[in-house]
UniProtKB/TrEMBL annotation:
Keywords: Cell membrane, Membrane, Transmembrane, Transmembrane helix. The chain crosses the membrane at residues 6-32, 53-74, 80-99, 120-143, 155-182, 202-219, 225-250, 262-284, 304-327. It is a multi-pass membrane protein. The keyword Iron does not apply. This is Cytochrome d ubiquinol oxidase subunit II. Signal peptide: none annotated. InterPro entries: Cyt-d_oxidase_su2. Belongs to the cytochrome ubiquinol oxidase subunit 2 family. It holds the Pfam family Cyt_bd_oxida_II. It comes from the Bacteria. It is found in: Cell membrane.
């Protein structure tokens, strides 16, 4: 049952990066759009993410619940030593959702729409940035349970070159996913070409940010290269991700967008497998001490068993409802 829980944890993180990342990326694309095209970009993105944008956070909630119930030591460590970036990220999620709702459903259209739009765009950048910072901090080994000073315990655990570079990479990935996913939602050839161009730009930005992550890992003495090339599984994932990147670029330049969503999703999945495989089952690397493992720092066997059963039973009800939600809105778009 423990492996069932771990599988759900990994899958929920992946799905949040893919679906929630595309959601955040919509705001990033709007933020990066020129003033002339901002309104049109906003309309296309609203049509794409409007019906299901709130459902994306379900995956984050599932991951948090799994950690809280099944791995309380890991949950407590992250909550204590990374409480500042966690708070900023959660505030960004709340501000973004609130601004999105008021901007699109407010009965009164006045100057506050500008405030809502700016809040939506800025929080769309800040939230994935700090999500990546949290992830980078968790694996960087900078969390120091023995720290006696506030800065060492709660600031320098995340405010460092490598975590920040991972945050920038995460934000660019979100923008790339949004551009790729929204291409299929465009109604005109002009809109389609605009988002193809945005996908190219965000792909280049993501590649640049990935190079920055490698540089930061070298400077901060983090064995990222070993994680990526230290075992056959990770090597195979990196090679396949590189091949899919070439395939994606050829498709973008030819204007063929049929397989783009699948290619983009496969790339993120392969990268996540490559990074997590080498240091499994350790989820949190700590400074000068043993990391926190999913196998040893878990709850009681009864708790893990009950959690696994709850996840399996919950899937029977939640997943069909989610698929039906997506199907319903797709049908609505087709008949509109």
């Amino acid at each position: 049952m423990l492996y069932v829980v771990m599988a759900y944890l990994w899958a929920s993180i992946l799905l949040y990066v893919l679906m929630g990342g595309a959601d955040f990326g919509a705001g990033i694309l709007e933020f990066l759009s020129t003033r002339k095209s901002k309104d049109q970009t906003r309309r296309v993105m609203y049509r794409a993410i409007g019906p299901i944008w709130e459902a994306n956070h379900m995956w984050l909630i599932i991951a948090i619940v799994i950690l809280f119930v099944g791995f309380p030591v890991i949950y407590a460590t992250v909550s204590v030593y990374l409480h500042i970036p966690l708070t900023i990220m959660l505030l960004g999620i709340v501000a973004r959702g609130t601004a999105f709702s008021f901007r699109n459903y407010d009965a009164v259209q006045d100057k506050m729409q500008v405030v809502y739009s700016k809040t939506f765009m800025y929080s769309s950048v800040i939230t994935p940035l700090f999500l990546g910072i949290i992830a980078g901090s968790a694996v960087s080994g900078k969390i120091d349970p023995q720290a006696t000073h506030f800065l060492d315990a709660y600031i320098f655990s995340w405010l460092a070159f490598f975590p920040v570079s991972v945050g920038i990479f995460t934000a660019t990935i979100c923008g790339f996913l949004a551009a790729v996913f929204i291409i299929g939602e465009t109604k005109t050839e002009t809109e389609r070409q605009r988002f193809i161009q945005k996908a190219r730009h965000m792909s280049l930005a993501a590649i640049t940010a990935a190079a920055l992550v490698l540089v930061a890992a070298y400077i901060d003495e983090i064995p990222l290269v070993h994680w990526l090339f230290g075992n056959p599984v990770s090597i195979a994932c990196v090679v396949l991700a590189a091949i899919s990147l070439i395939w994606m670029w050829v498709s973008l330049f030819r204007g063929s967008t049929r397989w783009l969503r699948i290619i983009a999703g496969a790339q993120i999945t392969l990268l996540l497998v490559a990074i997590t495989y080498e240091h499994y089952p350790v989820l949190i690397n700590l400074k000068d001490t043993e990391g926190l493992s999913l196998l040893t720092h878990k709850g009681s066997d009864k708790t893990i068993h009950a959690l696994a059963v709850a996840l399996l039973v919950g899937s029977i009800f939640i997943l069909p409802a989610l698929f039906y939600l997506l199907y319903s809105f797709n049908r609505q778009e087709e008949t509109a």
